[in-house]
Each structure stands twice: as structure tokens, then as C-alpha cells.
Amino acid sequence: MSESAYARAGVDIEAGDRAVELMKAHVARTRRPEVLGGLGGFAGFFDASAFKNYDHPVLATSTDGVGTKVAIAQALDKHDTIGFDLIGMLVDDLVVVGAEPLFVTDYIACGRVVPERIAAIVGGIAGACEVAGAALLGGETAEHPGLLAPDEFDMAGATTGVVERDKILGPERVRPGDVVVALASSGLHSNGYSLVRQVLLTDAKLSLDAHVAELGRTLGEELLEPTRVYARDILAMIAAAEVHAISHITGGGLANNLVRVLPDGVAATLRRDSWTPPAIFDLVQRTGRVSQPDIEATLNMGVGMALVLPPDSVDAVARVASDRGLHSWVLGEVGQADGAASVRLVGEHGRT
């Protein structure tokens, strides 16, 4: 059979079809009862009659990508974990308002479709969807020869969830006297990699294959550590205790994200001596001679989520966290203040 004009232009339709076949089993594992139909149609279907059990259902939506962490996956030729970073960025922006993630769609753009590689990426996405309890409803893989190099790819996605209107969490619930509880991150998660790559790989010229004693593993293994997906953890905490607001600590760091869920007239004081950031954060700061304000405004510093809640909810949240294998601690308090909401970090971190 002669080669098609599209194939000569660099687009392999048959490879795309093989990739779809390879990923079907991964997608099937994420199926929820509300999902109608299967993979391969022009649109995915989710049965909205499931909302009849809500008094006033409100849909929540979020979209995001992975950012330059994909460059680490490409360099290491390891693609089965990067999907957790995508789903973590998506569903955990929903759950902080109290919404249950329902379904996800993804988009992968690549220079060349390698079916096994695409299936590995989607396998990671599906695995993270299982952890989150969300269905992988559909997606798109686009081959862009000439725009991306053959082994380059980028990925993004969108998710939708639902929450009762009178149970939406946010600034209007926060009160002076509330406590801020932190949930530990699994590492860098998926933010600040432009800084991390510049400092460690470009400037310091460290190798991804190099074993770093303070990390206890290779630099590549550390940088590719998957983002923790907190969705079910957070939903369990909301069910077990009164929670007023939650901040997902992503790009911009702890203070810049926490202030987004605080009302005017309050100030949160967070104590650095309440936790010791994992070694990767000190490595980046020390190697790059990054100032404390800069590092805290870029990386999560070991805090993946910050919950704002009344003092009598702290023990219940801590129990849920412990039962689910999450480290939690009291990070600070919310006090009354004049003017716009603010967050300040005080003291110094302990050192291991």
C-alpha cells in the first residue's frame, strides 16, 4: 500500500488508532455508573439525572496542564506517572470548594504518535482518575509534526464536579480564630519546574541520573515524583469535620494561594517552625542562592493543601489524614485585621 499524503506530512493515523486501542483498558478502569457509551465517539456522555439527589446542585469546572515537568518525563523516557500531575492539578482545584470530581477529559499534543508512549501517559491519567474517583470521559491525541520534535509532547485537561450550593466552601465561611491545618505534599508536585530546571540542570549542570545523598535517590526520580491527588482525602475530611475553606498550594506558593480563600478583615499567621520542608526545597534554594521570599513565592515548600477550620475540627481532620496515610499539622491561625486579607510566614524552618 502506498504511503498517504498525510503520512508523508508526518501524521500517522494508524499509530493513532493503535494508541486508542492500547489505552481503552486504562480508560475502562475509571468508569463510573453515570458514564454512557464508550471510548471513540465525538463526545463523552455523563448522565445528569444523578444530580436528582441534590437539593441545589452546582457544577464546578477547572482546566490546567502539567507545565515544564513534562521535560523531565521526556528526558527520562518515563511517561507513566506524569498523568498524576495532570489530574492532581485538575481535580484538587475542584475539591477545595467542596465539589466531588465527576469526570475528566484530556488533551495530548505530540510531535509523533508512539502508541506505547501515549498509552503509558493515558495509563497514568487513568490511574490518577481512579484515585480521585473521577471518570476519564474522553480526550484527544494530536500529532503536530513540524511544531513539536518527534519525542516532544505537552498535555492539558479539564474536569467537572458537583457540589450542593449551600455546602460550597470559601472565604465567606472563614472567621477570626480559625486554625490553618497543612497537608504534606509529595514533593514539588507540578509547579515551579522552570526555576528548578534552571537552577539544578542548567546552572548547576546536575545530571538527572546522579544519585543525590540528601534526597536518597537520583535527581530524576525526585523531580518526577508524582503529585499527590487529594480529592478523596479532602472529601473524607469535609464529611468528618466542619471545614470553612481550603487552598490548593500550586504556582505562587503557600501565602499567595492561601490568601485567595480568606475574606477581607482577617490575617493568617503561619509558623515556619511547625514543619521542615523536604530536602529538595533546600537543595533548590541553596544551589540557586534563591531568597526565602522568592522560594516561598514559587514552590509549595512541602505543603500540598491548607485547610481553614474551627479549632474543634482539628482532631477530626488529623484522624482522617492519619487513616489515609497523610501527614498533617497545625500550620497557623487566622486573626482579625484591618483592610484586605493577608498571609505572613514567621520564624524559621527546622532543619533535619
UniProtKB/TrEMBL annotation:
GO biological process annotation, one example: 'de novo' IMP biosynthetic process
This protein's GO CC annotations: cytosol
PurM-like N-terminal domain: residues covered: 55-163
All copies of domain PurM-like C-terminal, residue ranges: 175-338
Broad class of enzyme this protein falls into: ligase
Top-level taxon of origin: Bacteria
Gene3D superfamilies membership: PurM-like C-terminal domain, PurM-like, N-terminal domain
EC nos: 6.3.3.1
Reactions accelerated catalytically: 2-formamido-N(1)-(5-O-phospho-beta-D-ribosyl)acetamidine + ATP = 5-amino-1-(5-phospho-beta-D-ribosyl)imidazole + ADP + phosphate + H(+)
CDD domains in the cross-refs: PurM
Subcellular location: Cytoplasm
Involved pathway(s): Purine metabolism; IMP biosynthesis via de novo pathway; 5-amino-1-(5-phospho-D-ribosyl)imidazole from N(2)-formyl-N(1)-(5-phospho-D-ribosyl)glycinamide: step 2/2
Location, primary (coarse class): cytoplasm
Keywords: ATP-binding, Cytoplasm, Ligase, Nucleotide-binding, Purine biosynthesis
UniProt GO molecular function: ATP binding; phosphoribosylamine-glycine ligase activity; phosphoribosylformylglycinamidine cyclo-ligase activity
Family according to the record: Belongs to the AIR synthase family.
HAMAP family: AIRS (MF_00741)
Protein name, per record: Phosphoribosylformylglycinamidine cyclo-ligase
